[in-house]
Amino acid sequence: MRVLVVEDERVLADAIATGLRREALAVDVAYDGGGALERTNVNEYDVIVLDRDLPKVHGDDVCRQLVGERYPARILMLTAAGELNDRVEGLSIGADDYLAKPFAFAELVARVRALGRRAATPLPPVLERSGVELDPARREVLRDGRPVELTRKEFAVLEVLLRAEGAVVSSEQLLEKAWDEHIDPFTNVVRVTMMTLRKKLGDPPVIETVSGVGYRL
Which residue(s) pair with 169 in the sheet? Predict the structure, then answer.
């Protein structure tokens, strides 16, 4: 799942991004509303964590523009304004959820995960296919009931494949969803990660390579 964090307090923004990356999410960061709109023009995000009081372009205006353009991401509005009227106003302009500062990071992760499940076709909390079960909240993977220890990127790649529900996922789509905007598009990291993921999931193989197209589970 790919997330955009939009927060003008750089220390907080970077801390949120670091924490979400530890949860095996791909995260980009923008420090103002203009930067957020630039990134949404070139990247497709599943969830946007959007501070309301932003410089250059106000968070409310960012939200209105994305909703008006039918941008597919779910929006979690993050702000120091926690009064009922502020929450109602934030939701009324199109935000999908609202979290007031200060917040518990575990709650932020839970809300991001919940919104991510609603980003396209609604998905269950635990993803399962071909004997592989993945629980994003607990960061657990089982193969035929056997625990499988994965790195953060292996976990992220497997989650993308499970979310595709049997459809083919290209290397470009995996780079888009499991890595951030700083990844080299010509890297072989997808192939290497796929090789180690297959090895850890064991036999019989469940990840198929579709020649010239991508991968499917």
Answer: 215
